[in-house]
Amino acid sequence: MEKSLFAIIMAGGKGTRFWPESRQSKPKQFLALTGDKTLIEQTADRILPVVPPENILTVTDIAYRELVRRLLPWIPVRNVLAEPVGRNTAPCIGLAALHVRKKDPEAVMLVLPADHLIFEEEDFRSTLLYAADLARRTKGLVTIGIRPTAPETGYGYIEKGTPIDGDKAFSVLSFREKPDLETALSFLESNAFFWNSGMFAWKVSAIMEAIERYLPDLHERLLVLEKYLDTPDEERVLREVYEAVTPISIDYGVMEKTDNVLMVTGNFRWNDLGSWDALADIYPRDENDIGGRGLVITVDSTNSLVLGKDKLIALVGIKDLVVVESDNAILVMKRGRSQDVRKIVKQLENKSMKEYL
Questions:
Q1: Where does CATH 3.90.550.10 sit in the chain?
Q2: Which among 9, 70, 19 has a CA at the least distance from the CA of 40?
Q3: SS3 for 85?
Q4: Disulfide engineering: 119 pairs with which of 14, 101, 215, 269, CB 3.0-4.6 Å?
């Protein structure tokens, strides 16, 4: 286990596409959607064999700081970083980089979202260690690409370039936004495109240099904040900095602009659990192609996901649905419409129906 290897778990998302289970008080990363443990607990457990607890940091919204501490009590309290307001992934990663640099200026950072589902965990850890070693040797910004198994329109894509280290890694020609179906099919057939997993490895010095070059305003404000780390004024200055910075993703702000990006292929099954439709593909199905949990009975129904809680759920003559029961709301949705769940959340906000948010 390398003392110079750090892991950053990004846990600040709202997860609105998983309403009604995901709420403002407990968004997706704090739900046990695929087992007994929450997604953030699963993420932390996966990296513990290769990163010591004192080198694992989480970045979350200040509203969830105590929840993270309860779920991950073995992480040092100081390592639970709380953002006063969400500003997307670039400020989040910059904040974490400051804390890592203070501990070890030569460190390599692994950056991992808190809400992904990963199978073949040994292969996953091997990939992380190789990516970290590549980042250390090359000072490149390393991203992990997943070989696509379907023409997925909900993911971004990475176009590979020339091989590096044999065929273990590649240069990156381009990043592509979520494509339409026809484009996704062409990506799948070309064998040159990989799903963008949103997982990274880089030296802390390399990412700070990249932020300085491509996001100079953010870099300048981070340097101001760095002077106040571990002082009584840290939280006040952090809030001032976050109120001033522009929200921007690390992909758009840095990765799509630099020519210093390398891609390592992740040879493990991966799902970013972006929606109920993604979850529907994971749950085991019965003889009627119905998956889920809870007390469910069906008549002439097929190809559906049903997640019950306290009530019996009965389906008659339906197909291609997602049904989710929560404490005070029920979602009934046509499969393939997961992206529109956010519109429900927006209506609830507009109508000030806070008890359902």
A1: 5-274
A2: 9
A3: coil
A4: 269
Dump the DSSP string for 253-290: IIITT-S-EEEEEE-S-EE---SHHHHHTTS-B-TTSE
The helix or strand, by DSSP H or E, that contains position 17, with its residue range, turns out to be none
Q: Which residue has the tokens 């529907």?
A: 280
The architecture (CATH level 2) of 5-274 comes to: Alpha-Beta Complex (3.90)
CA distances from 102 to 221, 228, 330, 342 (A): 16, 12, 47, 39
pTM of the model: 0.94
Measured CA to CA, the distance from residue 238 to residue 247 in angstroms comes to 15
Pull the structure tokens for residue 155.
């993911």
The residues, any chain, with a CB within 8 Å of residue 145's CB and separated by 6 or more, are 158, 160, 194, 195, 196, 197, 263, 264, 265, 266
Pairing, β 80-83 against β 56-61: parallel
Q: What size, in residues, is the chain?
A: 357
Percent of the chain topping pLDDT 90: 82
Give the tens place of pLDDT for each residue, 1-58: 677 999 999 998 887 889 999 999 999 999 998 888 999 999 999 999 999 999 999 9
**What residue type is 19 in one-letter code?**
W
